[in-house]
Amino acid sequence: MIATQITPDFSFSPRVDQVGIEERAARFTKRSIKNETKINGLKLALNMIDLTTLEGKDTDGKVKQLCYKAVHLLDNYPGLPTVAAICVYPSMVKVAKTALGNSGVKVAAVATAFPSGQAPRDVKIRDTKYAISEGADEIDMVISRGKFHQGEYNFVFDEIAAVKEACGEARLKVILETGELGTYDKVRRASDIAMYAGADFIKTSTGKISPAATMPVTLVMLEAIRDFYYKTGKRIAMKPAGGISKSKLALHYLVMLNEVLGEEWMNNQWFRFGASSLANDILMQLMKQKTGVYQSPDYFSID
After folding, report:
1. What is the pLDDT of residue 78?
2. Which of the 8 DSSP states describes residue 138?
3. Which pLDDT band holds residue 1 (cuts at 50, 70, 90)?
């Protein structure tokens, strides 16, 4: 198995000051942002989005349309970036890969019995290897949440390490499903397990339960990334997913990212938003800044 080091004793992950975390997260929403900085921030957030479709009714046509949107977000606004990636089920990876061509947009695939994670390890490994064989650049896995809640941290660690090995050159996003963890202490412990086991990203949520991403939870995870970097020299990426649909909130997340981790993390290699509906709100805000009026949501594609 590939892992950063011998499994640490995760019972000694730092305790989290709940009041302090929530108060600090709230302060990030009070920052004043000048207009030019706001426009640059909106474009940066747009370039950090993983456009996602993860429905049982997904078809080739729907995935192709999403890929077209990823590259042509708003053709009457020159100079806009693309999104970072398209996230689909493994069965749709080849469709997305072909549709995106040489656009530079990555293809991410959810794997390991997403979203429940309730499958034997060999099934999860085969799921991962299938997605890679179809052309996936990134794998989004969900941890075995039941095992985590039972305190079987070594099991969770070993499984992440095994999936990371199966990924080869593809980057691995490890989903903690923070809405089920219950406490910030558990969010911190799950973050530490994922990073030491070899995760390239730590990700809040599947988007299938509520609550999904929140600023305090994301702050806990960013601080875990910071501490891991100080200890190991290895940079880990972050992906809050679910519940971030407004551009104003995305800007708050970017302020937090900059103040906790710094400029080096302010790009889509090290930070992503898992929030497809966010793209349209950002496009509406950018057009408002350009024309002085809001366009109707009907001018923007839903998918």
Report:
1. 84
2. E
3. very low
Does residue 262 contact residue 25 with C-beta atoms inside 8 Å?
no
For residue 241, the cross-strand partners are 274
List phi, psi (to 5°) of 26: -65, -35
Cβ(158)–Cβ(1) below 8 Å? yes
Could you tell me the residue ranges of all domains in the chain? 10-299
Q: Of these residues, 106, 124, 164, 239, which one is catalytic?
A: 239
Task: Determine whether 69 is an active site residue.
Answer: no
- What would be the CATH architecture of the domain defined by 10-299? Alpha-Beta Barrel (3.20)
State residue 223's pLDDT score: 98
- DSSP β-bridge partners for residue 36: none
Q: Is 147 a catalytic residue?
A: no
Q: Please pick, among 50, 127, 137, 140, the residue that the annotation labels catalytic.
A: 140
Q: Answer yes or no: 9 catalytic.
A: no
Pair 56, 110: CB distance under 8 Å: no
> Which residue type is seen at 198?
G
Q: What are phi and psi of 63, to 5 degrees?
A: -65, -40
Dist. CA 42–CA 80, nearest whole Å: 10
Helix, strand, coil shares of the chain, percent, nearest 5, are 50, 10, 40
Confidence of residue 294 (pLDDT cuts 50, 70, 90): low
Q: Which 3 state secondary structure label does DSSP give 14?
A: coil
Q: How far apart are CA 222 and CA 242, in angstroms?
A: 17
Q: Cα separation of 101 and 96, whole Å? A: 9
Question: How many Å separate Cα 281 from the centre of its chain?
Answer: 18
Instruction: Assess contact for 254 and 267: CB atoms under 8 A.
Output: no
275's tokens:
């929030």
Single-letter code of the amino acid located at 124: K
